[in-house]
Amino acid sequence: MQKSFIAVWTLFLGLGLVGCGHQQQASPSSSSKKTSQQTSSRQASQSSSHSSKIASSSSDASHSTTKQPLWSNAKSAKLATFMASWSKTMGQQYESYWQGHSVDMYGLKIPDELGQAGTNQPGSMAMAVGDKAVTWALSTSGESNAEYTIVAIYSDAAHEPYLGKHVYLFTLHNGQPEVLVTQQNQGNDNNWLYFSETQNQELRLGFAKIVQGD
């Protein structure tokens, strides 16, 4: 009887040791799964962070490359301030003009009666620069398909005596700032109103700085 009991106890003890062995072997597997899950979580977090940085960089690059207008209301206001100061320096009084509010230059309304190259509209004169009639356009953004894009017009014609009047066109020619002036007081066979680039360096540089945003 004792032998049988001892045999049963020995068998039970052996099975218990085998079970413990299986549990000890299973433990590393469970730890490995946890480590794998943690690694995957970190990788997913890093991937998400990297994607966010790429998206942010793309957004910043897109913002920095946004094209700025060549002309704007802010630049127009700066030009008005500049012209007020320059007028005092010159001892003259200049006013701003635009379509629908033209300056009377010896009977010709500018810009309303300023014609285009290749046209011969009654009561108008084509704009010419040098010895060539040119195309022009008024623009508040500085953009147009014309040879000369006019962004501002100033004149002292309302305040100066005969033969002392000036009209200045502040233009962009091939994307570059150019101030044109005329003092023409009569017609001609071509029926052109002749402009030339002003020789006043202060006016030229002042306008260029405003266009360039300085």
UniProtKB/TrEMBL annotation:
Q: Start and end of every DUF4767 domain?
A: 69-211
Which Pfam families does the UniProt record give?
A: DUF4767
Q: Where is this region: Disordered?
A: 23-69
Note the PROSITE patterns from the entry: PROKAR_LIPOPROTEIN
UniProt-listed InterPro entries? DUF4767
List, as start-end ranges, the regions of compositional bias called Low complexity. Answer: 23-68
Q: Under which name does UniProt file this protein?
A: DUF4767 domain-containing protein
Query: Taxonomic lineage per UniProt?
Result: Bacteria, Bacillati, Bacillota, Bacilli, Lactobacillales
